[in-house]
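To: structure desk
From: M.T.
Subject: fold request, one chain
Message: Could you run this one when you get a chance? Sequence is below, nothing fancy, just the single chain.
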Amino acid sequence: MVQRNGAADGIANGGGSGKPDNWIPVREEVMNEPCRKMRVVTIGAGFSGLTMANKIQNTWKLDHLIDHTIYEKNSDIGGTWFENRYPGVQCDVAAHIYTLVEIPNPDWNGVYATGPEIQQYLKKITKEHHLDRDIQLNSTLIEALWEEGSGTWKLTIKQGDSIIHDECDVFINASGVLNITGLHEYKGHLCHSADWVEGYDYNGKIIAVIGNGSSAIQILPEMQKVAKKVTNYARSPTWIFAPFAKDIKSEVEPEPDGTYSEEMKERFRNDPNALKNYRKTLINNGNHFYKNMLMNDSPTHREATNQTKATIKERLKGHEELIELLTPDFALGCRRLTPGEGYLEALVAENVEVISKSIECITASGIQTIDGLKEFDAIVCATGFDVSFRPRWLQVGRHGKILADE
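Reply: Done. Structure tokens follow.
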């Protein structure tokens, strides 16, 4: 600060305006304001990509500073909820906390939302909040190469039969990790849970379901209802846990079957604070659940383990061979808990068989294990995903390092 002395200086600097005689004007603008917008490219228009678009456009209002584009390989937004369309697909996270933080949905039909419901929600908010402004569909990233000289990523994108090039200052991989792996020898009807083939009639068919993770335990009960025979290849057991969110006590509660009444949905529409408090209750209880019940060898963990074992035994209706086969010998919570209503009940149906032997190979007509070959009209693969976080495109960073190799 410059100190000025003397009446003349005081008058010159605004002595007559009531300001101090050492007053120096300050320009009300940002110093070194950017001369151009920052270019940001996001890959994937699922939950993460849409969240990024909403943050830039609406939450932080950064359109004057950021030029944002989302490249999505599919023909529509939604990511895993666009790709996973198998019968019974559902999210095992409570619906009211499975939204964009700033955009709740008062219209969920129940505690847990189905895949189509979630996709409908994502499409609705994309239109209402203009998130599609930033999205280019049917755009598959081929490579992302870092250029040290310019400090930018050089991108090559395939759009239909055309190849386009782009560049950005910030490159965000929001493509997720649920991507299909392996298996293409079979000559019958073959599909993966994340690449469901619409229109195939499973009625009266002999079907194999490979896997017993979160997708398989939703698919199998639906197949059991219509198939002549279902064989579930389950190499290792998993903890089938009751969906705890339905039992959470709060000021507002769902119906006994886990659905929300029209009165409850109407209240959420008209009273945002009631919905906000309910969402906080779900989050708080979920956090306490994991803290209190999954601390290995704690009293609450032992109690939860015993309750879960009892539930498995009850649902398998005393089938000792299945109980032994499907009850894990590792600690509850060691692997991801799998809430699967209807799965264990389906396994004891007359038209369902469980095989725990490892698959040796897939033949043109079926599945070969050490016990022999079983032939199937259809094989449903719920065999898991590539969760290595390696990019599906060529991505080369500084000093020529290929990120998939790191």
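Reply (cont.): Confidence is low (pLDDT under 50) at residues 1-14. Let me know if you need anything else for the meeting.
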